[in-house]
Design a protein that fits this description.
By secondary structure, the protein is α+β, with helices and mostly antiparallel strands. Strands 1, 2, 3, 4, 5, 6, 7 and 8 form an eight-stranded antiparallel sheet that branches. It starts with a helix and ends with a strand.
Length: 146
């Protein structure tokens, strides 16, 4: 009996190793950066983000959302949400929102900026804030050229 238990353990280990060796990660699979997965609620001083529309043009990558209710704070990132989101804000006043590189919707810049209660932008960050009305705080960073 003792010998058969050892044999079963040996066969199980061999099957486990063989199974693991047959599974290869896909070459296109990229691991998100630590920054993309950080679910620490941010402390945002909106005074540091002026409402300067001349800084809006370009591509912005979504990095974090904070949704606050009277009972809890939920932080979402591309890791926890399972998707990426990119804003393209065009000088002609069009905002395109892409989820996982697929166009999700298009708005005029006026419609986009009228949605949150407040918004602000600096050289590398865009923040929209609707938290005071049970909305969300959205943080985007300017996409770097490839």
């Amino acid at each position: 009996m003792r010998g058969s238990a050892g044999l079963y353990a040996l066969v199980g280990a061999a099957l486990l190793l063989a199974g693991c060796a047959l599974i290869e990660p896909e070459a296109s699979l990229e691991r998100p950066s630590e920054f993309e997965c950080d679910e620490t609620p941010p402390r945002i001083d909106m005074d540091r983000f002026p409402r300067d529309t001349s800084l809006l043009w370009g591509e912005w990558q979504w990095v974090k959302s904070v949704i606050s209710t009277s009972f809890s704070i939920l932080v979402q990132t591309p890791c926890s949400a399972g998707y990426t989101e990119t804003l393209i804000i065009r000088p002609e006043g069009i905002v395109e929102v892409y989820r996982n590189d697929t166009l999700a919707y298009r708005k005029t810049l006026r419609e986009f900026l009228d949605t949150p209660l407040e918004w602000g932008v600096n050289q590398d960050s865009l923040v929209t804030n609707s938290l005071p009305v049970d909305g969300s705080l959205e943080i985007f960073v300017r996409k770097q050229a490839d």
